[in-house]
Design goal:
five-stranded mixed beta sheet; three-stranded mixed beta sheet; 22 helices; 8% strand; disordered N terminus
Length: 539
């Protein structure tokens, strides 16, 4: 699923410096070949039971939405029975009261297939439930890597790659008759297993049949949307312009506050006289303050001529004031100025003056750097298979050290079984339960003495009765299956342990080992990463 950035057609290597963006005819032959190579199933309509099982009953621990449970439409991570990892968007029950419009929209978006998109795999329309199912992207959002980075800031070359990939995604959608994208912002850009940027398919559908198309602060919405409440293809270009400013500044800044940021960093720059048309807002203490995502308070300034003249003033030292300080030594004045010029075109007040996606692609290609370097390297991940640190237990799983896993399961016993002890105390009075407990004890004894075939038989008797549910029993039987070279059965048990206990790291580690035994290294790496993350949180 890697992106190739060095094989662009020759006709796309230049763009005009001034005036409207040119309508360049881009040769998409290479892109079409990439699209055809995507190995994804056709759009599918899932049952609510399938998705409930995939998300461990829509467990809170599986929520990946920006605002968690408080979001009106919650997104969960999950895993289908065939081991494919998915993201499930569950709409508010009042969002789409009629099933048919929802199905029609979802089916239309589900026909799109492109490596620049997080592709829509299916939907669910069951009673009053409305859900979308998409590919799962394991490496966070652009907002995370750009605004809240931990190890290193995003490099300029990677920022320009993000801009190009999203422009290409919009161009593809436009070519397929899906030119409208709702609420384009940094949280809509996700990174796949190779750290290549993808545009979420969820933005190709509104959050409700008649709901708002923009959920972000109104300061980021196109001016025509504020007037009419309608999204047009030109509105999407405006939102793309705000994304370009995010990439340049490393902050989520409303277009009208670009000059304010520069003045906050250096009050002597861009001194505008207080002439007619300049508005000052009283907050009881003099001047209203604007606070951006980083907590920097900036004086509110509104230019009567709009955003475009303000952006046109950004040159040389002013450009340095707007640019992310982390880009020092990476960003040339020419490249920065060209990006600001492109953002200015996108943010024109008159929609007709904004460039279309094809022109955006043509303008961004000359700004690409290090095109031959893989995305995970630009993101500071030297090796895609070593993208995260592993604990000693994680390392043991990676090398498929089943003896070490056996020792760990013996050591932790049943302390991770929530509520099992209480349930046993009530059930022990019946003869049937006594027999069940005896089969479990026999299994534990066989497991301890490494008689894995007997342990499988005994644990199976315990599970088949169905009176009690124990993730540890499933985990132990999973390891027994691995010891007997039964990877499929081991994987099923490890998944069942996860369903019972969604945040138990042992369940993910066992899945990783079973997947490695099946030769599915990519899937195993994802399971290892999740197990490692959960183990870190627990400790």
């Amino acid at each position: 699923m890697g992106c190739e950035f060095s094989k662009f057609p020759a006709c796309c290597t230049g763009t005009e410096q001034d005036g409207p963006a040119p309508e360049v005819q881009v040769d998409c032959a290479n892109e079409e070949n990439v699209v055809e190579a995507i190995d994804l199933p056709r759009f599918h309509e899932f049952s609510i039971d399938q998705l409930r099982r995939a998300t461990s009953g829509f467990a809170v621990e599986n929520i990946v939405s920006e605002h968690g449970e408080k979001a009106p439409n919650v997104v969960y991570k999950g895993k289908l029975d065939n081991q494919m990892r998915i993201a499930v968007k569950r709409f508010n029950r009042n969002a789409w009261p009629d099933a048919q419009p929802f199905l029609e929209e979802a089916r239309a978006v589900g026909q799109l297939r492109n490596q620049r998109l997080v592709n829509l795999l299916g939907c669910c329309c069951d009673g009053d439930e409305r859900l979308l199912v998409a590919e799962y992207m394991p490496n966070e959002t652009l907002a995370k890597h750009l605004f809240h980075w931990e190890n290193q800031p995003m490099k300029w070359a990677m920022r320009m790659r993000v801009a190009l990939c999203i422009a290409q995604a919009l161009e593809y959608c436009t070519s397929k008759g899906r030119a409208l994208y709702h609420d384009l912002h940094a949280y809509r850009v996700l990174f796949d297993a190779d750290y290549n940027p993808r545009l979420s398919c969820f933005g190709l559908m509104k959050n409700s049949r008649d709901g708002k198309s923009y959920s972000t602060n109104l300061a980021f919405t196109p001016p025509e949307y504020l007037r009419t409440g309608r999204v047009t293809p030109e509105s999407v270009t405006y939102s793309f312009g705000t994304l370009l400013l995010d990439l340049l500044s490393g902050k989520h800044i409303p277009p009208s506050h670009v000059i304010d940021l520069i003045r906050a960093r250096n009050p002597k720059m861009l001194q505008f006289p207080n002439h007619e048309g300049t508005e000052q807002f009283s907050n009881g203490q003099g001047t209203e303050q604007f606070s951006n995502d980083q907590g920097i308070e900036i004086e509110q300034f509104t230019n009567d001529q709009g955003t475009e003249p303000a952006l046109d003033l950004i040159r040389d030292k002013n450009l340095q004031m707007l640019s992310d300080s982390c880009l020092e030594g990476e960003l040339s004045n020419d490249d920065g100025t060209e990006l600001v010029r492109l953002a200015s075109r996108c943010l024109q007040s008159e929609p007709r003056e904004r460039p279309n996606p094809r022109s955006l692609v043509a303008a961004l290609i000359p700004l690409q750097k290090d095109s031959e370097v893989s995305s995970h390297v630009l993101m500071g991940i030297p090796d895609g298979t070593a993208a995260f640190p592993l604990s000693p237990l994680g390392e043991a799983c990676l090398r498929m050290d089943l003896t070490a896993l056996h020792e760990v399961l013996e050591k932790i016993g049943y302390k991770d079984d929530e509520g099992a002890a209480t349930e046993l105390s009530f059930q022990m009075w019946t003869n049937q339960m006594q027999e069940t407990l005896n089969s479990k004890k026999k299994g534990d004894s066989a497991f301890r003495h490494k008689d894995f075939t007997t342990a499988i038989d005994s644990y199976t008797m315990f599970i088949d009765v169905g009176t009690m549910v124990s993730p540890t029993v499933y985990a132990r039987r999973s390891l027994c299956y691995l010891m007997n070279n039964m990877a499929d059965e081991a994987l099923n048990d490890a998944m069942q342990a996860q369903v019972i206990s969604p945040v138990w790291y042992i369940a993910f580690y066992l899945q990783a080992v079973a997947l490695l035994a099946q030769g599915k290294e990519n899937e195993a790496q994802v399971a290892l990463k999740e197990g490692s993350s959960l183990e870190t949180k627990k400790s």
